[in-house]
Amino acid sequence: MLKVIDGQLVIAAERLVLRPVQVSDVGLFAMHAGDARVAEGTSSIPHPLPPGAAEAFVARAMKPGAEERIWVMDGSAAGMPEVLGVISLKQMDRDQSEIGYWVAPAFWNTGYASEAVQALIAANPLKNKAIFAQVFQDNPGSARVLTNCGFGYLGDAESFSVARNARVQTWTYLKKMA
After folding, report:
1. 159: which strand partners?
2. pLDDT tens for residues 59-109?
3. Residue 21 in domain
């Protein structure tokens, strides 16, 4: 039986659980997202992280009916920290979403990102027909996560990075759902 918390599906993976964001996550979000390596790997996290940014993120993530569904990669059931990273689906038109994720640097190269992406795809909580992804070209590890999870390369583009205050070259990927 699938578990739902606050209207959002809880998704089990082998070593982690994808669960909704909760207020108690603020401190760990601030610590991890405040790391320049995390912020510079995303388009939306500023660096340095301003006061109140983690609280605002939690409030947005917990808002009912939001277009973006956000899950915490929670490893506590396997003896790992409660927040390993974050993964999200931003609803687009025509039953499509864009997936985004970050993992705390202490857990890079451990397979947690791939495990989270695979679990989210398998659950397909928004009943998408397709899921897009975009990664910075200087982050080949994130690109490997996507290709290992069955995403196909679509092409090159660019996106603005708040932390870098610059446009950054990206690779775009697509996963068609069954």
Report:
1. 168
2. 999 998 888 999 999 999 999 999 999 999 999 999 999 999 999 999 999
3. yes
